[in-house]
Design goal:
CATH topology: OB fold (Dihydrolipoamide Acetyltransferase, E2P)
Number of helices: 2
Helix content: under 10%
Protein name: Chemotaxis protein chew
Strand order of the largest sheet: 8-1-2-11-10-9
Structural class: mainly beta
Strand content: over 45%
Number of strands: 11
């Protein structure tokens, strides 16, 4: 892999293509229905047992206000790798892991639709598709973390 390439995981959400740096991903799990927690923030779907620990599950669809999670057989949970306080995100499907040349990346324009620009690392042009590169480290604010963990 050349130094100007990054390895990304491409996944679907709200009918669009999103991606994250593979370094932020610990594991991809098959979907399991989380246990709902009372009075949790609206974007927290619940918790699951993951490696003998409680793992909060986040609905990016609700966090980004792009609708409800779609129920399909391809739905997955991506476990986000962090120094502490791991969490899972629900995605509609996982497409692929691939190397992308940083020349294909552009900064997100100010008009970036409904998703707060602070979550977006950039936009990647892949053929006819534009893939939104998310910075999963910034998905949860410190306030969110205090309410969840």
């Amino acid at each position: 892999m050349a130094s100007n390439e990054i390895k990304i995981l491409i996944f679907g959400l709200g009918g669009e293509h999103y991606a994250t740096d593979i370094k932020e991903v610990e594991r991809i799990l098959g979907y399991q229905e989380p246990t709902v927690l009372p009075e949790a923030p609206s974007f927290v779907k619940g918790v699951i047992n993951y490696e003998e620990r409680i793992l909060p599950i986040i609905s990016l669809s609700k966090k980004f206000r792009i609708g409800e999670d779609i129920n399909n057989d391809d739905k997955k949970i991506i476990v986000v790798k962090r120094a502490s306080n791991k969490f899972g995100i629900i995605v509609e499907n996982v497409y692929e892991v691939r190397d992308v040349n940083s020349d294909l990346m552009e900064e997100a324009p100010p008009i970036t639709a409904t998703i707060d620009k602070k979550y977006i690392s950039g936009l990647i042009k892949l053929g006819e598709n534009i893939v939104i590169l998310l910075d999963l480290e910034k998905i949860l604010s410190s306030e969110d973390e205090e309410r969840i963990f």
